[in-house]
């Protein structure tokens, strides 16, 4: 039989072409990160949304209760015919925490009373409050677009009298610009023939008697709102940190699985190209993963079988003919 020398086969002919990944395929690391981090983030957003809704509901309930309490106290004790008493009572009311302004509108030709925490700028707040009540009289929320600070600073810059300028600057120091939201409760006060007063809050039926005046109390729980908002942000930050920690742990755990899989894939490619010399091994930490250890053993058995088969199929070298020469 004639001897034929083995011709090396190109690697492209030995290695079958890998199928192109289907659309939407992702790596194992990306999938594990998604299923680990996404639920934590969604939970954080859900909790933050629930806390935000509860915060607004709780603030409205507290504001309504506080405003109704102030209205009841003023409704039972206020005498609109005594200007000195009215001024003192309104001043005492607005000095209480969270009570921002009180509006008293007596029936008939009696003057209207309006007092806020910043009496020097009552004109601006009263004008905005009247406009809001005219636009939506049934609303219990009033947003004041406070431009008083800018107006006072501009006026102080224009005047030439030092005394007037100092007064304007002192008033401006007590103000803060921006939008401020108030919860407003409006109530009507009635008096019967025996002198007993009754308060009609929104939604209550009108009591009998003569209407005396109408009250409007505006409150703002800025401190409580800031505290609740801070707690809400703490929940969001905690969930974000938990998501980052989960992502780090998932990445670490995934790397322990992905790295040996990549190693075994390259080993299988090498075996398919005929490189059967090096045994298939895994490092000690990876061998603790049962599935990967079994896969490595299966590939090693395949390598051993291929090596034995290649040894049997390899043609033997032709025998060398030696001629013995006789002397």
From TrEMBL:
Residues 1-21 are annotated as: Disordered. Residues 8-21 have a biased composition (Low complexity). SMART domains: HAMP. GO terms for cellular component: membrane. Pfam families: HAMP. Residues 255-311 form the HAMP domain. The chain crosses the membrane at residues 28-51, 233-251. The keyword Transferase does not apply. The keyword Transmembrane applies. This is HAMP domain-containing protein. It comes from Deinococcus aquiradiocola. The lineage of its organism: Bacteria, Thermotogati, Deinococcota, Deinococci, Deinococcales.
